Amino acid sequence: ATGGFLSYQWRKGTQNLVEGGNVFGATGPMLELANISQANAGNYSVVVSNSAGTATSGEAVLTVVDLPAPPAGLAALGTNAQVQLTWSAAARALGYNVKRSQTNGGPYTLVGTTAAISYNDAAILNGYSYYYVVTATNLAGEGSASAQASAIPMPIPGETFDTDPAARGWIGIA
């Protein structure tokens, strides 16, 4: 650059940014915003000056995407060798992670992903309790888990399911 020493002033809209809070580098060649929130969304530019004059950059638009809300109304229905899950759409969600545990309260393991507000878990056995939570995902990441729902899949009346009587204390039903 001609004219020697450069000075910088970053702006949000028409307001000069000031160093401090979550703003770092307000008068430097690189701007950093830490712990951003919706309050930081907007149009940013930098004014660069030296003894030869001043130039203003084009605007860069910062869009802040919040994590999705937790899905509400998770319901689990146990049927023959499967659990059918349904829930209400979560704000800001692009998809959902379905997690399962055989222990009340977790820990949970990811068993599937879907863009729908329902999921059918067929990788299970009849006669056992299964506990589920669902999280919503978007470009910002994974949100908090839903409330837990549980179900015990059972065979269709008249069919048989086998368990290990020694390990579970169950007997096959005919």
Structural class category: mainly beta
| Beta-strand percent range | 35-45%
In whole angstroms, the N-to-C terminal distance is 87 Å
The unreliable regions are 168-174
Description of the structure:
The protein is mainly beta. The chain is built from 1 helix and 15 strands; from the N terminus they run βββββββββββββββα. The protein has one helix spanning 165-168; strands at 7-12, 15-16, 23-24, 32-33, 42-50, 53-56, 60-62, 72-79, 82-88, 95-101, 109-114, 118-121, 130-138, 141-145, 149-151. Strands 1, 2, 5, 6 and 7 form a 5-stranded antiparallel beta sheet that branches. β1 (7-12) and β2 form a beta hairpin. The chain is rod-shaped, with a radius of gyration of 27 Å.
Give a brief rundown of this model.
The protein has about 170 residues and is mostly beta strands. It is about 0% helix and about 45% strand. It has one helix and 15 strands.
How would you describe this structure in keywords?
174 residues; mainly beta; 2% helix; 44% strand
Write the layout of secondary structure elements.
Blueprint: E1 7-12, E2 15-16, E3 23-24, E4 32-33, E5 42-50, E6 53-56, E7 60-62, E8 72-79, E9 82-88, E10 95-101, E11 109-114, E12 118-121, E13 130-138, E14 141-145, E15 149-151, H1 165-168
Antiparallel strand pairs: 1-2, 1-5, 3-4, 5-6, 5-7, 8-9, 9-12, 10-11, 10-13, 13-14, 13-15
